[in-house]
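can u do me a favor
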């Protein structure tokens, strides 16, 4: 273990220890230390209360807590409730669906416009690849919804660590 890791761990233990003076006014510093943990923000029991409070505060529209002397960069809150499983991507053009990467198929393509920007549901679409007409098809699946529909991104420059916090 490096000297730097020992110093960081010692400081974390001191800051989060019951009765520590920094604990009384150091909610923001506790949050930053817990988010900096490579094992996850709630790996240690001492981090569960401040991280739980952080989620509650963010859900109520409160700002990310401050910690004097610790540089932290946060994004604005983003509402992003939808996601796709695997390598599928969101396809709002076809309704709220997830679409696979295009795959070239050897079936007859429809005779419709080759400039169609999106595939019709349930069938292949013509495309031009390297000057040649090809027929592509897609798989569709249902969009998934996050339990926690909003997030902020938090970056701690001193550690180089970035974390997405969903709330």
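np, heres the sequence
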């Amino acid at each position: 273990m490096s000297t730097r890791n020992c110093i960081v761990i010692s400081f974390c233990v001191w800051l989060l220890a019951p009765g520590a003076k920094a604990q009384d006014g150091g909610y923001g510093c506790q949050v930053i230390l817990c988010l900096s943990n490579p094992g996850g923000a709630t790996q240690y029991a001492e981090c569960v209360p401040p991280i739980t409070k952080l989620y509650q505060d963010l859900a109520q529209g409160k700002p990310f807590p401050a910690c004097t002397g610790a540089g932290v960069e946060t994004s604005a809150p983003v509402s992003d409730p939808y996601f796709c499983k695997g390598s599928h991507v969101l396809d709002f053009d076809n309704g709220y669906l997830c679409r696979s990467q295009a795959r070239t198929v050897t079936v007859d393509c429809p005779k419709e416009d080759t400039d169609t920007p999106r595939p019709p549901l349930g069938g292949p679409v013509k495309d031009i690849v390297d000057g040649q007409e090809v027929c592509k098809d897609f798989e569709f699946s249902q969009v998934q919804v996050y339990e926690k529909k909003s997030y902020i991104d938090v970056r701690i420059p001193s550690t180089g660590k970035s974390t997405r916090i969903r709330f």
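The chain has two domains: 3-79+147-166, 82-142. hope that helps!!
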